[in-house]
Amino acid sequence: MDWGPVRNEQAALNWYRRAAAHGNSDAMNNIGYMYRNGLGVPRNYDEALFWFQKAANLGNSSAQYNIGNLYCWGKGVDKDIVQGARWMLKSALQENALAQYNLARMYQWGKGVEKNQEEAMKWYRRAAAQGHEKAMLALARLEKNETIEERDSTFMPDEGWPE
Questions:
Q1: Distances (CA, A) of 20 to 10, 29, 94
Q2: How far apart are CA 32 and CA 25, in angstroms?
Q3: CA-to-CA distance for 45 and 50, rounded, in angstroms?
Q4: Angle at 112 between CA 109 and CA 116, to 5 degrees
Q5: Is 161 a residue whose pLDDT tops 50?
């Protein structure tokens, strides 16, 4: 028998909406996350972008990362990796390790930004300094001048979403 908490996404959404009404950008981002993933509500990328944008306008780095992902994947917006890179950079500058890692990959492969190995290394290092394991592996490969398999060159940002 499972004695853990019962998931009640509707109750969570109601609490997030109450906090968002008071200007809480984390709550706004979480509402966007719920719409993005169809948690307690039908999946709706337009609504997700609306809430991510509200949070991003308040400087929420997770929301900025989430908007970058929407643009890179073309979810609810026209696919625009250049615009995705701009949002990733905003988030990465606020020390969001997921954004730093994805921005590093963009620089490594020249996707949405001009290809620049020095910039890639810089962003991998910043993400790795925060414990991002994939960034650590990428650094190890690049430091060894190891050839990364061609399949890795088809850039798409990690789908990993902030908790």
A1: 15, 9, 21
A2: 11
A3: 8
A4: 45
A5: no
SS (H, E, C) the chain: CCCCCCCCHHHHHHHHHHHHHCCCHHHHHHHHHHHHHCCCCCCCHHHHHHHHHHHHHCCCHHHHHHHHHHHHHCCCCCCCHHHHHHHHHHHHCCCCHHHHHHHHHHHHHCCCCCCCHHHHHHHHHHHHHCCCHHHHHHHHHHHCCCCCCHHHHCCCCCCCCCC
Q: Classify each residue of 127-143 as buried b or exposed e, where b means 16 or more C-beta atoms within 10 Å of its C-beta.
A: bbeeebebbbebbeebe
pLDDT of residue 7: 80
Radius of gyration of the chain (CA): 17
What's the confidence (pLDDT) of residue 151? 40
> What number is the average pLDDT over the span 91-111?
96
pLDDT at 150 exceeding the cut of 60: no
| 49 close to 70: Cβ distance less than 8 angstroms | yes
CA dist 108 and 97 (Å) reads: 16
